[in-house]
Amino acid sequence: MRMSPKPIQSFRDDFTYSNSPGAIARFPFPFPEDEYMYSVNIEPHVTPGPEGSVYEHLLDIDEHYLSEMHERDLVLKENPKRCLAMPHMDLACWDMIDRVMTCFAADYPEHFSLEREGDHWTWENKLLNIKDSFTFGDSSTLPMPPMEYIGRQVQGDFALLDQRDGDLFLDAGIVTCPADWSLAFDAGMSFKEWHGPVPLAHGMGVFDRALKYLCAISQGRPVRRLNWTLTINARMDTSPETYPQWGTDRASVTPDNVGEKVHLRVELQVLDRMSRSNALMFSIRTYLISMNDLVTNPEWAKRMHRVMKSLPPELIEYKGLTRYHPMLVEWLSRFDPAN
Amino acid sequence: MSIDKIRVQVTGIEQVAPLIREFQLKAVDAELMPFSPGSHVVVEMPDTPRPHRNAYSLLSDPRDGGCYRIAVRLQEHSRGGSRYMHEQVKVGDELWITPPANLFSPLWQASKHILIAGGVGITPFMSYLPELEREGAHYELHYLYRGKQTGAYREQLQQSLGERCFLYDADAGARCDLRELLSDQPRGSHAYICGPQSLIAGVQEVAAELGWPASYIHFEAFAAPQPGNPFEVELSRSGRTLKVAADTSLLEALEEADVPVTSLCRGGVCGQCLTPVVSGDIEHRDEFLTAAEREKGNCMMPCVSRAAGKRLVLDL
């Protein structure tokens, strides 16, 4: 981590979350062209990526680590069902523990360490003051179930997909900062079932192609893609379960507060094959940036305007932007010299 | 954590059947990773004039990261790979392998697992068995072979599996009655076949007659490109033209010319090497593309498929 973790900031109530200039500079801006186009946009996640970028390591941690782990704790206390693992996913959860701990210890040695003697492992997370010894593969030797144990130490949502008969099933995960989807609702669903609501893409054969591609991902060759939406306020937990708390936020946008209220929400999604279980680990790392911070980069400001202006109506509706989309386009237009 | 290739050293070679050799591989620079039952690796052999790349199932215990084991049957019509492994590779030699990938894993929800191996097709099941045992799963193994050629590991299998092991040595006149095998299996049984295409087709046919759902039958064919007629291929972006010899696959010809194409199974199954075609008739030999996709004629799997005529133009 090139950036040290900041003290805890909030993603709710008073929303004290903020990005440092360094965090803005490394923000994964997701639009390569002026016009928004739907595509599968999957590429190999070759690590190490560019130094200091969000692509440098398999799993990126940054200055928001403590804040996000605190937020996860609040969500899990409110609703423990935001973390689940079906019994047949136990081995996959241990694969995930192996992958996260091995990568963190190698990529961020100042914060994490792992000692292995056969199945006897000792893990230290200095950021959260955790030091535990356990028997690898024996869930009774951990202080909590394996998915929750590791999920509480890593930024971003995680799902473990069981691969059966050429399809993927969402059979385990920890999901506390989703862009309006629910782990409890999608649990056990197949790939096409949980993508059911996505507009436009079905007719294009995008999902058939993507599914075949994902099923063939081999060990050591993870892939990634970016996904995006907009969120009002720096709210991490925009889940259906908590909709009553954030649904009305959209009505709070006015021409005067667009810059501080509207956030671009980008997910860096990584798919990585697990060794022992053959499950796919799906990590969804969320980055939030306010429009005020985004327009400090003139290229991003101009492009953001053009992309928002050309967004198809189906996507405006699907992403829940209908209410404030015209206001946002108007606000962004001042940063586009073409206007 | 991206790993392209792993350098391994051959630490042991054993003749395990008249035509089958087992190779033990250990990593040179690092530890080998654990894998899931049914996984394979692609072994790269540094032969001249061109390297061979063949996929082999891992037959060691999946939890054992100390050593990988593969078994290679000497193919009569070898395109060079199996012959190289049998005649050139010695203990102490170094080879490159890909990380394990799995297109043939067991379905743990099955009420019973029926494993049907033909010849060297026993190999993926060798990695199933330790996990099935650990899971306490209900299973049986049917092993068809010719004792004068194949039949590797049959004694140890019979010893450790006892009455769950059924051996059929065609050279001793033993035949497997597939109808009997598949009849009266408990509801929720899944069948797995690894062997020649004729065995797979035979099981599928009988299973369909007996009313098995197709999704309860899983198979892995011996995936190797078959030779065909030589042809020329033009790369529309670079303007280059390559010759593809009769015993070379299009993918191999592209690799030899340093044209990067992603590949994985090298047997027309996984879809990784999908390549756009500009013009020319294609002889599709893969299991990946749908009939509708083939009809369009605008893409192909160069690991196994070839030109139907003398020339192809690829969008590369």
Automatic annotation (TrEMBL), chain A:
InterPro entries: HODM_asu-like
Highest taxon, organism lineage: Bacteria
Protein name: DUF3445 domain-containing protein
Organism of provenance: Marinobacterium lacunae
UniProtKB/TrEMBL annotation, chain B:
CDD domains, sorted: fer2 (cd00207), PDR_like (cd06185)
Documented EC number(s): 1.14.13.-
Organism: Marinobacterium lacunae
One Pfam family hit: Fer2
Keywords noted in UniProt: 2Fe-2S, Flavoprotein, FMN, Iron, Iron-sulfur, Metal-binding, Oxidoreductase
FAD-binding FR-type domain: residues covered: 3-107
Name of the protein in question: Flavodoxin reductases (Ferredoxin-NADPH reductases) family 1
Key word Nucleus present: no
Domain of life: Bacteria
